[in-house]
């Protein structure tokens, strides 16, 4: 039984959840404690009590702890990557890459702890000085989704601790293993009791407790739009600081002058890798007339070579979908797209058992052509290996289609035209724009986030994370 970490102690939960391997549903990874609201209350109390001392800890103390955590994560990347692939279903190389990202994030924010910065300037009044500094916000509640079980927790926990906040972390129910492993590393890193707390449990129980408790000064949430709206409503009701990272319907434009190989590789990578379960996945391909048919033919040829199998098996390109309910959502959307007039050009087949006979949630990647902008497949997030194609007349039409979405997380263009690439970078209504690159797969040291219905509040990651995890103070002194 894997327990919750509350006030420096490992505690049993009120109930238990079973962590199942989506590549082989007979494989039980472990049983994990599920906290109730009373245990979440204990964690918030512990974090509240720890905050005054931790917020005044030295930058050296915070650097040493975060740097040690990063070093251990990087040293154990193969083992932690194996656990991640086993519980979430992305392939082993993808999972090891995600773990390495988490390690590097801890090291980046260890460095940030040493350079909080600030400004001094003269007042407009004679003899008065002004200092502008940043202070920790307080107790932060961190709520994360299942699709990046270690990287998203890392990119919230590391900056929170680096700038002197105390943390109550609630991971997604489907992937407690990576969250627990990260908490276990943090528990041995030298943090005072109560500074970091792991509270695994239901969103409707532990999550809601974090949203509604006045001792939680700020909430950082990544997940679906529907849950994000609940987070926002609860936070506004008690005027807590909050930040939301939610869904996407990310476009990738392919222009007539694109390098076909680059365009196909970028579209296959960001549409289907990690089983299409990335918020930055390109789920809408917008392809101009002159290259459309050649591009689709090359996509289908490439898709035929992709191996869908056990996430941890060497040679697997695409692992399983995360669970039965997400699988149903994926196949439902394929049906909706066909009923609306789309053509299933390739894939979308349910595979009950993999090459070794293990039962899992396997689905071959699906490409749906002949779709139009108003169809549900182009307006709603599927969150699986399902990509639709819209035909465009020219660049201007493609740009308008790409921005015709309630979301605005990432957007891409494949082109050899500097003019169109430059125009697109400026006029795309997305938070992250990629030229001749997949829309998914971003650096760990620069801001991450979107616009419109995809995000709310300050950016995550890089130095911009300070906007959320610190609060600014302006001090005046007359000598
Ligand atoms: P989800 O909204 O179902 O759950 C996210 C988290 O919220 C989980 O920990 C869940 O337990 C918790 N939760 C659920 N109900 C709650 C409530 N009432 N109060 C408080 N917390 C509650 O999302 P998911 O299915 O885990 O993740 C998939 C979604 O996440 C997709 O929409 C995807 O696009 C999005 N996502 C976005 C980003 C980004 O940075 N923009 C990154 C990854 C995933």
TrEMBL record:
Keywords recorded for this protein, A-Z: Oxidoreductase
Q: Which CDD domains match?
A: ALDH_KGSADH-YcbD
Q: Which InterPro entries match?
A: Ald_DH/histidinol_DH, Ald_DH_C, Ald_DH_CS_CYS, Ald_DH_CS_GLU, Ald_DH_N, Aldehyde_DH_dom
The superkingdom listed in its UniProt entry is Bacteria
- Residues of the Aldehyde dehydrogenase domain: 16-474
In the record, which residues are listed under signal peptide? none
Q: Does the keyword Ribosomal protein apply?
A: no
In the UniProt entry, which residues are flagged as the active site? 245
What family does this belong to? Belongs to the aldehyde dehydrogenase family.
Q: What is this protein called?
A: Aldehyde dehydrogenase family protein
Q: Which organism is it from?
A: Pelomonas cellulosilytica
Taxonomic lineage per UniProt?
A: Bacteria, Pseudomonadati, Pseudomonadota, Betaproteobacteria, Burkholderiales
